[in-house]
Amino acid sequence: MSDTLTGYARCSLDKQDLSAQREILLGLGVPDHRIYLDHGLTGTSRDRPGLDQALAAVRSGDTLVVPKLDRLARSVPDARDIGDTLVTRGVKLSLGGNIYDPSDPMSKMFFNMLAVFAEFEVDLLRMRTREGMAIAKAKGKLRGKQPKLSVRQQTELRRMYDAGGYTIADLAEVFSVSRPTVYRVLERTRTPEV
Fold first, then answer.
1. Of 20, 47, 91, 139, whose CB has the highest number of CB atoms within 10 Å?
2. What is the pLDDT of residues 102-114, one digit of tens each?
């Protein structure tokens, strides 16, 4: 049986930096070449290539090291699933240096509480985002994606198309937009049939 340390770190946004988590993992004894990362991926999605690689790299007797539980999972079912999978395979889980022992009732309770808090944090973030968007929308500041062409340009595009001298590709080139944009403008400016 080996006792190899494998690390996993994740951040949700592309703008965020993983260096602090990497330093924590290195400080816990994980070799740099055994650290797997997911950058710009949310913890609520189970489709994370770095996590899949880390889980594939660990063998019976190894330890998967994560800086905090919320880096591994952001929901109780996902955290339990990953934890149970590791236990079944004989892999230990280290959360910031503390080994999770599923046979110890206190350790199991603490793990489940951490998972509940991680999920609660995600739910709060979603709620605040929805509230902020509703306030911005009420103030007229949240208008969605703006059309690529002004109303005047859309009218001219429609006129040129109806005149019959231009193809969709021609119109896309003249107005410097994609063909799907031309189709959307034509759909929006279509006069209803009587």
1. 91
2. 777 888 888 888 8
Hey, where are the domains in the chain? 5-122, 151-188
Per the confidence metrics, is the pTM higher than 0.85?
no
Instruction: Say which of 2, 12, 60, 150 is annotated catalytic.
Output: 12
Q: Which fold has domain 5-122?
A: Rossmann fold (3.40.50)
Nearest alpha-carbon partner for 111 in 146, 137, 86, 128: 86
Return d(Cα 87, Cα 89) in angstroms, integer: 5
177: left (phi over 0), alpha (psi -120 to 50) or beta: beta
Query: How far is the CA of 181 from the CAs of 158, 168, 171, in angstroms?
Result: 12, 10, 10
CA pair distance 123, 125, nearest whole angstrom: 5
